[in-house]
Amino acid sequence: MRSSAVNPGSAAEVATEAFAAAFSASSTPMVLTDPSKHDNPIVWANDAFLALTGYDRHEIEGRNCRMLQGEASDPTTIRQIRDSISAETQLEVELFNYRKDGSRFWNAMTITPVRDEAGNLRYYFAAQADMTEKHRLETALKGANDDLERQVQARTADLLAALEQKTALLHEVDHRVKNNLQVISSLMLLKARRTPEGEARDALQGMAERIGALSTAHRMLYSEGDVTRFNLQDFAADFLSDLTAGVDTDRMAINAEIDAVAVSAAMAAPLALMMHELATNALRHAFPDNREGRLTISARRRDGGLNIRIEDDGVGISAGVPNPAGFGRSLVDMVVRQLRGTIDWDEHGPGTRVEIKIPLDAATLSGSTS
Amino acid sequence: MTGVIPDKAIDGALRILVVEDEALIALELECLLDDLGHVTIGVVGNSQEAIALGRSAAPDVALVDIHLIDGPTGIEVARALSADQRTTVVFMTANSKRIPPDFAGAFGVIAKPYSERAVANALHYVAERRAGRTPPPEGLDGFRLAAMPEGETEFGAEGTGPDLRH
Where is each Response regulatory domain found (chain B) (predicted)? Predict the structure, then answer.
């Protein structure tokens, strides 16, 4: 670098030499061109620049920087550089450049016009950086992203197929369960038809009715929406119309108040069986000799649980035939225990009142009432 | 609650074809139909026999399961038998999801597992409709009518289900 403009030995000259030494030793490739000379040739380059391009100093000094360009150099970027140089403005660009050995690299350069104290253009200074690795990483990253996206798509397709299969399987199992319940019920009723009137026949018909209650519960499952929930209100509507159809409505009044509560599907069968036992027991035993009466059934959400109350104004259990409701009653006790609930039989009459409290799971309590 | 069922049959006996491949279900259904005062004209378990018997006997009602011995062919049976104006087709299936939107010409569906009362109610309803009457749609639980053709709701104020008079 020429230093004729400053006095030898002055502070300015020391500074200039220090800068020159620093630039020469810098690991950032740098080059200086002189636009006052023909074709703006390279007048200085540091060792880092030589190392980057693979040229010897004498091979590049006096030549224009375009010697580094080649086929892959983007013409638009080259035009940008030319325009910036003629406008004497600063520019940052990235361009494919070629080394002496023909290999190419992404060259990120900052080209800055350098002016003297009077503001006249003296040099162009360009600092470079090899961006090849960065570009390679970017490409690799994009490739990896594309690959990931493909994998996610493939996985999603797999999952959808699996879900479809699972849904088909659920329908198939549901169909079989319903069909089997129908077969069991038909079997019981067939046998009942061929059994002479009496205790055995009553027992068979009683069993068929229990299966009927379970069937009603099962019909409500999987019929729509959330397969994990069982809507007690829907069940009760069906169950009650079944119950009402079996009684003389002039003599008997059945009232029901059932809250809309969607309990866990696992509770469907025990709840159905329990309500069936309690209601049919009351109808069968509380009103002998065409006694008139009233049966009230309620199911309410209360204090983190379900309160079920079945109340009649009949003769009361103690007044009935000895142990009339024996099996039904122990069934109910068992089912309530299974549901971790409590049961309270109040037979001090008139009539019988049964109160059951069943804890509900968190999902039921926080969730839908539909 | 079998005690109440015979009352429902007072509106006259129906000649019924039972299309059901499960022998036990078919047998019990036959007994039930008998209790209700109806006449079972035949029990068949595959689609070809069902269609053949249906065409030759022209029953009042065909109770059709969807899954038969030869596969889910109950739909075809319903389509073939409902082509005859004299026959009212009612599905009896545990697989209502398989029923096409147009019900294959069927009048409705009794969902399995059904109660005897549901069957009695459904047949009573069908008999009323065939007689040109429009019974109230209450107590049809377990029995669902086919969708209405002219955007009528299932339980519209006027008649429900396809017109069965002829």
Answer: 15-127
Q: Environment class of residue A157 by beta-carbon count within 10 Å: exposed (0-12), middle (13-18) or buried (19+)?
A: exposed
B25-72 pLDDT per residue, tens:
999 999 999 999 999 999 999 999 999 999 999 999 999 999 999 999
Tell me which residue of A341, A281, A305 sits closest to A295, measured CA to CA: A281
DSSP bridge partners of A44: A32
Q: For chain A, which residues make up each domain, given as ranges? A: 11-130, 132-224, 225-370
Please report the sign of the dihedral spanned by the C-alpha atoms of residue B30, residue B31, residue B35, residue B37.
positive
CB A351 within 8 A of CB A281: no
* Structural domain contains residue B150: no
Q: Does B2 touch chain A (CB under 8 A)?
A: yes
Neighbours of A3 (CB within 10 A): 12
- pTM for this predicted structure: 0.65
- As given in the structure block, the two tokens for residue A20 are 């020159």
Give the mutation candidate from A181, A219, A221, A227 for the B interface (greatest B CB count, under 10 A).
Answer: A219
pLDDT in tens, A269-282: 999 999 999 888 88
**Which residue in this structure is represented by tokens 């950086």?**
A129
CA neighbours closer than 13 Å in the CB half-sphere of residue B128: 16
Residue B31, amino acid = C
Specify the amino acid at residue A322: P
Rounded to whole angstroms, how far apart are CA atoms B92 and B64?
6
Residues of chain A that touch chain B, judged by Cβ-Cβ distance less than 8 Å? 171, 174-179, 181-183, 185-187, 189-190, 193, 205, 209, 211-212, 215-216, 218-219, 237-238, 241-242, 245-246
Q: Tell me the C-alpha distance between A164 and A70, whole Å.
A: 57
B131: domain CATH number is 3.40.50.2300
| Angle made by CA atoms B67, B68, B71, in degrees to the nearest 5 | 75
Report the topology of domain A225-370: Heat Shock Protein 90 (3.30.565)
